[in-house]
Amino acid sequence: MSEGGRATSAGASFPGRRIVVASNRLPVSLQRTGDGWEVEPGSGGLVTALAPVLRSRGGVWVGWPGTVKADDELEEVLNRATRDSGYRLEAVPLTREERDNYYYGFSNEVLWPLLHDLQTLFRFDPDYWSAYETVNRSFAETMARVAGPDDYLWVHDYHLMLVASALRDLGVENRIGYFLHTPFPPPDILVKLPWRKQVLSALLCYDLLGFQTIRDRNNFLACAGQFLRDVRVEGEGTVVRCDFEDRHVRVGAFPVSIDFDDFDRIARSDRVVSLMRDLGGIAPGGHIILGVDRLDYTKGIPNRIDAFRIVLERNPPLRGKLTLVQIVVPSREHIPEYHDLKRQIERMVGEINGRFTTDTWVPVHYRYRSLDRPALVAHYRKASVALVTPLKDGMNLVAKEYCAANVDLDGVLVLSEFTGAAAQLQDGALLVNPYDTIEVAEAIARATRMPSEERHRRMERLRSVVRDQDVYWWVETFARAASSSELPPLPTLPDFMPGFRLRGDPCGADGA
After folding, report:
1. Angle at CA 138, nearest 5°, toward 134 and 142?
2. What is the pLDDT of residues 82-110, one digit of tens each?
3. Which of the residues 181, 264, 296, 379 is marked catalytic?
4. Does the annotation mark 393 as catalytic?
5. Is the distance from CB of 20 to CB of 152 less than 8 angstroms?
6. How many structural domains compose the chain?
7. Which of 151, 264, 393, 470 is the catalytic position?
């Protein structure tokens, strides 16, 4: 247990002897240098949550090392990187063509926009699908080779939807779980995918399917019922059972989260306090409005910048008192849509600054780079308002990080209703439709004028949710669903904008 009495993932009740995890990338960063390989440990939420499980149970993490060239030194480098971790890394090498067609192609030009309802960005190339099948089979072959008969296999995210199907073809009978970190689309979106039946059938080869929200789970069940024959759904609550052919698959909602205690601790550190003082010059005597996003068209960054422009246009007294700090973490720049998005953001920032800047105030501070954890947390603590307004997001951990770092209880979270986080955080955040820039602008103005008592009350609610349902809670609830012989009595999760409600009757099946 953690100090606060919450379960940690080290005690997660997964079935089996060891855990074999598969994700697109290994939990380390590799870079070729003149002297060999430089290895940096990963620090994301998935690594934070699963490393204690693997350390206590033993196991293997399977993933792509990020290289397109085989290297005899690589295996030894990976072994050294996890020598004291209690588990080992197993690389799945990709050729340059496989990387381009599987990762940049099918994963990011087909599945990513499909899962985020951005239909105009689909690119259905048959070569992409072929590479996706090939690479998923390579992951399955690696997992089959390293897994013992009593190991539990846990596959992550949209890059690897077909792995369980390939494992079953290889004769693997282990229990296999899957968690999708993105949203799952409704039938009227998935119908556009030429390979929808293959994807749905492959997902139903897992023993447990985990989604971020009830809405995503319901969307999957609706798609399975519409596009596959003889699908039946039974049960109520967060986890239900889906019967298909001779398989009984559990399907549930398990909202991913963060290590609350770690963010809270860092936020109170001397280094963060010092960094906060350095940020004071950005908005002396005024409010910092913060946006933190990876460069991606799903994040709604142009919409957000436009909303900030509207605030300044409609509220002259707020000019000079509000400063938007927009941090954009570089990502996928070689993809044309991302390069175009970067140029659009830079143009919009330039137009606002050119129009409103004074001798003592620059309205938008745009930073195109990643920040280390203390610098990021310092921005969270310093910001009066966090603008988390993606067009669609599976969860969005920035919203939860902002709350965990807000130890002064003085920040306001403006949150898109199209994030998975909205279901859990709706009672404390100001929810907005990110497409409605006037509504977002009004929420910004309201947040900056909010009485301190209301800010504190809202932030206390938000922090309580993130503290109680942290990343270790996420791992433990998934593990309980994976290990129980009956549907486990998991806590009922809040619903938000549900797709449809299950009534214990079979899903319709038209065999489309």
Report:
1. 170
2. 777 778 899 999 999 999 999 999 999 99
3. 181
4. yes
5. yes
6. 2
7. 393
